Amino acid sequence: MDCGKHEKMVVMHIFSDGECIVCDKEIQTSHTPCNMVCPECSEKYELCEICGELVISEEEKEKHLEYFEDVKYRMGAEGFHYCFEGYSHWNEIKDVKFHELRKLYLDTAKKIEEYVDKKIEEYGEQLYF
Ligand SMILES: [Zn+2]
Ligand SMILES: [Zn+2]
To answer: How close is the Cα of 30 to the center of ligand 1, in Å?
Structure first.
């Protein structure tokens, strides 16, 4: 499947190789630049084979507008951190990039917390023992 934005793409009769951005499998396409997503991942995750963007129906688009508006609202109402850490994992949102960033944020937040704990321990030991 594709997102329908690529009709004007010039098709050159050369083959190019690339890797699927989802599963890293090798892809060979008869145009350049090479497709971003392999056919299997395209079907499985509803991604455009050509650019890797999510292909969603108008109805899904409306839902996702609401989801993202809710995320935005909850960032303020629940607090930015709790919005992602405790309030919800936002699994209804079908967006690879969004979840990548969400996980990166939570990982980083955890690392900061661990670092602060470590520093408290280190300075405490240096000063009181
Ligand atoms: Zn793939
Ligand atoms: Zn596309």
So the answer is: 17
Task: Return the ligand number nearest the Cα of 37.
Answer: 1
User: Residue 115 class from Cβ within 10 Å (0-12 exposed, 13-18 middle, 19+ buried)?
Assistant: exposed
- Render pLDDT for 58-71 as a digit per residue (tens, 0 to 9): 898 899 999 999 99
Ligand 1 centroid – CA 77 distance (Å): 38
Boundaries of domain holding 73: 58-128
Q: Side chain identity at 90, as an amino acid letter? A: W
- The CA 95 to ligand 1 mean position distance, Å, reads 16
Asked if residue 66 and residue 40 are part of one domain, the reply reads no
pTM of the model: 0.61
